[in-house]
Automatic annotation (TrEMBL):
Active site residues according to the UniProt entry: C358
Composition skew (Acidic residues), residue ranges: 469-480
Region of interest (Disordered), residue spans: 424-528
Ranges annotated as biased composition (Basic residues): 504-519
The name this protein goes by in its record: 28S rRNA (Cytosine-C(5))-methyltransferase
Gene: NSUN5
Superkingdom of origin organism: Eukaryota
Organism: Merluccius polli
Compositionally biased residues, Polar residues: 424-434
Amino acid sequence: MALYAKAADILEKAEQKQGAVKTLVYDSKFANVKQLFALVCETQKYSSVLAELIEATKLLKQTKVKMSQAKVLVYDLLIGQGLKCGGPWKVMMMKHRARLEAALARMKIKRKVTRNKDLLPSGVQAAEDGVHLPRYVRVNTLKTTVDDAVDYFKRDGFAYLGQANRPDDLELKAKSFVRDLHLPDLLVFAPKTEFHEHFLYKAGHIILQDKASCLPAFLLDPASGGHVVDACAAPGNKTGHLAAIMKNKGKLFAFDLDAKRLSTMSTLLLRAGVTCHQLANRDFLKVDTADPEYKDVEYVLLDPSCSGSGMVCLGKDSSSPDQEKEQRRLANLAAFQLRCLNHALRFPRLQRLVYSTCSVHAEENEKVVAACLQQNPGFRLVHLLPQWKERGLEPFTQCLRASPTKTLTHGFFVALLERHSGAVSTAPPSQEETVISMPSPEVTSVTPSEEAEEKPAVVPPEAQRNSDSEEEEMMEEEEAEMKMEVKTNQVEGQVKTGDGAPGTKKKRKKKKKKKKKKTTTSTPAKVE
Ligand SMILES: C[S@@+](CC[C@H](N)C(=O)[O-])C[C@H]1O[C@@H](n2cnc3c(N)ncnc32)[C@H](O)[C@@H]1O
C-alpha cells in the first residue's frame, strides 16, 4: 500500500507541476525508487485512458479514493503488475476488477485496437514506438581526448564503426558506436545505452548530452581566452561545453535565477574540470551590461526557459492542454525570451550571440528572433551548418531546427546573431518591453500589448521547462549523490582515459560502495 500511496502523492504533485517526477521520486526517500519511478511514469503515460476508465465505472464515487490514487491502482490492476501488493486497497480494487476490465475491453473495441499501448495518445505513442534517439556522448575535452575515449570504449567491448558519413550511420545496433556526423567531440551509441554507472561518466570524462543541446556552444565557438556570458546557465551542460571549447582560458560568466540548480551546476562543473567560470545566482535581466566587468564580453549564449515542447519524453502530461491557456503561456515565455535577447545584445563589445530553445513553437523561436532583429538592426543572422537538413521556418532558414524524425535528436532551435561591423546596440528601453503578437501565423512585427506592462522578468514556474535533456533532469536527482562522490571522482578523474581500464568492474563496484559510505559535501564554488 505504501508504494501506491507514495505513487499517487507524486502523481498528484507532478500534475500540479510541483516538480519533475524524477525529483519528486528521489525526494520521497522511498526505499525502492526505481519501482516507484516506473509506476508513476507508467501511470502518467496512461493518465487520460485511466481517467476515462475511472469515469466510466464511477470508481471514485464507489470507493471514495482520490483520482490520483485511483489512477495508480487501476493502472497496476489492468495494465501493470496486477496489484501485487496493496493491502486494503487491493481488497477494495478486486471488487471492481470485473467492471474495470469490461470498461477497458469496451474502450478497445470502440477504438478498434487490441493492445493497451494502442490506447495511448498519439504523442506518447510516438515516443514509445517510433523514436528511439541515439545515445549521444560528448567527450569532455578538458579531461580527455576523443581518441582516448574511443580507445577506452573499444577496450570496454564496444565496436567502433569509425566516422559517420550520413544520417543513417547514426542508427546503431547495441554495443556499437561512431563519431558524429557534425560535431567533432560527440560519439553516438545505440539508443538507451546505459552510461550513468560508467567510469568515464562518473569521472567527468564524458557528458551525456543530446546532440541538439551540443549545438549552441559548438556554433557560438568562443575563442580561447575570450569573455563569454551564459545568461541562463543551470544546470550547465552548455557552460561546460563552452569551457571545453575555450580550453578553460578566458572568463565564462554564468547566471541563473535558481539557486538549487546553480548548486547542482557547481558540482557538475567541478566534476567536469571547469575552472574558467564565475557563477552568479542572479536575474540575468538585472545584470548591468555596462558594468566594466563585462566590457570585454564578445560572446553570449542565451538558452532561456522555454515550453520544452521539443522534448521527447515519456511520462509527459499527455492530456490535451487548454488551447487558450497554452497560448497565454507561450506568449509569456516569448515575451520573456525577447527581453532576455534584447538585454543580451546590450553588452557593448558583443560580437556573436547564440539563442536556443528546446521548443518546437515558432512563437518561441523564429518569431522571437524576428522581433529581436527588428529592434536591433545592428545585428544579423548567420547562416549555420549548410549541411544540416532541418532549417528554421521560412524566411529564417539561416537558423537550425532539430527533431527526432529529421535529425534524430530532441526538438530544438538555434539562431546565431552577429553584429554588423561597426554597429552599436540600439534597442531602446521602450522597445525592450514590447512583446510579439501571437495570433498571426507569419508574425515578424512587434505589437505592444497588455502583457508588456507586466514586464515578466521571471517566467512563472508552471509556464517553463528548464531541462533540455534526459540527462539534465537526471542531474537534479543525482545532485546529492554527486556531492558525496565528487571528491573521490576528482582523484579518479586524474586517471588518463587512454591509460587503460582503471580496474575491473568488480573493483569499480567496490569503490562505488565505499564512496557511498562517505558523507563529504561540497560547497558550491563561486556562487555569488
Ligand atoms: C533551459 S534552462 C538552461 C539550460 C542550460 N543552458 C544548460 O544547458 O544546462 C533555463 C534556465 O534559465 C533560468 N532562468 C529563468 N529565468 C531567468 C532569469 N531571469 N535570469 C537568469 N536565469 C533564468 C532557469 O532557472 C533555468 O535554469
